[in-house]
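Thread: "does anyone have the structure for this chain?"

Original post by V.I.:
We have the sequence but no experimental structure in hand. Need at least a predicted one for the grant figures.
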Amino acid sequence: MAKEENIRYDFSLFGEMDSYLFREGNHFRLYEKLGAHVVDDGKHRGTYFALWAPNAQEVSVIGAFNDWDRTRHYLSPRKDSSGVWEGFVSGAGKGALYKYSLRSRDGSVVEKGDPFAAFWEIAPKTASIVWPHDYTWNDGEWMKTRRERNALDAPMSIYEVHVGSWRRKPAEGFRSLSYRELGHELGEYVRSAGFTHVELLPVMEHPFYGSWGYQTLGYFAPTSRYGTPEDFMYMVDVLHQMGVGIILDWVPSHFPDDAYGIARFDGTCLYEHEDPRKGYQPDWGSQIFNFGRNEVREFLISSAFCWLDRFHADGLRVDAVASMLYLDYSRRAGEWIPNKFGGRENLEAVDFLKKLNEAVYKEFPDVQTIAEESTAWPMVTRPTFLGGLGFGMKWNMGWMHDILEYMRKDPVYRKYNHNKITFSIMYAFTENFLLPFSHDEVVHGKGSMLGKMPGDEWQQYANLRLLYGYFFAHPGKKLLFMGSEFGQGREWNHDDSLFWDLLHSPRHHGMLHWVKDLNRVYRSEAALHGRDFSPEGFQWCDLSDWEQSIVSFVRKSAGGDMVFAVCNFTPVPRFGYRISVPRGGRWSELLNSDAAEYGGSGVGNFGGVLSEPLPDSSWHSLTLALPPLGMLLFKLERPEALPESVAAKRPEETNRPHAETERGGKN
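Reply from O.Q.:
Generated one for you, tokens below.
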């Protein structure tokens, strides 16, 4: 064995308490202890390296500082059964490239990147980079107020973005924007469009660009494709200063098996399962984390903490939760192993998700965790002490599939599928739902949002405006994928840019104008967001007019404000359409998807309607002109006092929408 050089064993960042917590399974800030940490305290000048490799026989750090010679800087195993190896290398500083060389029990030697690396070489290069974070934040005002901005009763309209393809520079080789450029350009655009948050497809370092970030290997580092960690921090900082929150897509469900990554890290299945019936994900050809190991749970929760702590993220959207919950996910009989009770539930993953949410909300009570969970697993967004998984919100995949299936149909056939637009209210308040029109709906031959709409060109745009209007009025927070806000006609392509030239077209510009106004009204009207998760915030006015494919309902705020929405899902305008509303007074028209400035035909109600009382009832009626393929939104501006004869009755006797309505009228 060659002589070790410039390595010291009298220095450690991983103390006795760290070791105790680590072995116990409760160390969630491992990014402060493991990995590479530059030290310059007068006595020590260099880099401290530490990694978890309990089954390795020998570990050394290699890099440009030792000519990648594995025999020159050996690390030493701690004598506390933690499985951590550590050492201090003099002379290695910021920017140094490095890897770990590990000899396994069978004598084989592998070179691995650092699981806790703060920065990586640009793919396809695979070395980790010594990189102490050095950034001064200027988002103090946001951080002080983000609890209110991220609260469940706050408006949340999310713009989902893929960093590499949002906007590119044609004059510079069609390159993607850097993090710093994105902070300003994306921030200005999102702010002008009225979105409250952006959600980034995974920015954690990943070897294959075409995975969109979902094959993550660098769980503590933003991808170097667009800049340094400080550049990423700058982007977040600028967004916060513009009043825009940032949510990060995060993938704790699986990871790729690239040779330099964490698969078979120390010669054994350290992070994954040995048995492929538990450890291999057939859908994505990747490895499944072993959620039963304390150290693996700590690795993942530490990753979550790192993004919320060091990078000031306002929330984490947890990808593919369903694949974690079910042992038989995408598997046939004989391809999976039941749990200890003989069931299909992954009990270890359930425990991990509960622990993740408990830890996050304890340390970061002003953020949100959001589950992408596509099954009927109960209580995903209920507290763990009640038996729930503890998430703040859950994607409403059922609503999304139902409404898109409905909207694809020719309006002639929609009346036979009326339940597709009414059924969601049956379960809308069983979870804290977020309504997603995400990237998954505009790829792999599914067509763009505009392309899903039936009819001629005018009807396609009218249908899409109607869909977005219903989307913003329906209970639940909102998410819209980039390009959908201005009606891009082609599917998203990660190797391309959004087609920004389309905004020169009046119809695309009108679509963006519509989304801006929807965001403006959604944010300003508490009735549209304050009770998203409470049945007290919603009431049907009429859900039974299936023959004409019309639905109407009111949204209510805790302060008594009331907003009325009516949607006509056919291309037939309805004049003299009478419908009951819970209160009397003047109902001012807030929005009309058929307005000329959005590209519509201009059928409307001259800015508002005065209600007419119904006999012996607190309910009133409105006589409306419903535009073709249109959505109208009204606000009760001057509520009338209830007649004494009605007010004296019991509430259950006055709260009945049984007024007769005139169907159709002029066509």
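V.I.: this helps a lot. Residues 644-667 have pLDDT under 50 and may be disordered.
O.Q.: and The chain is about 25% helix and 25% strand.
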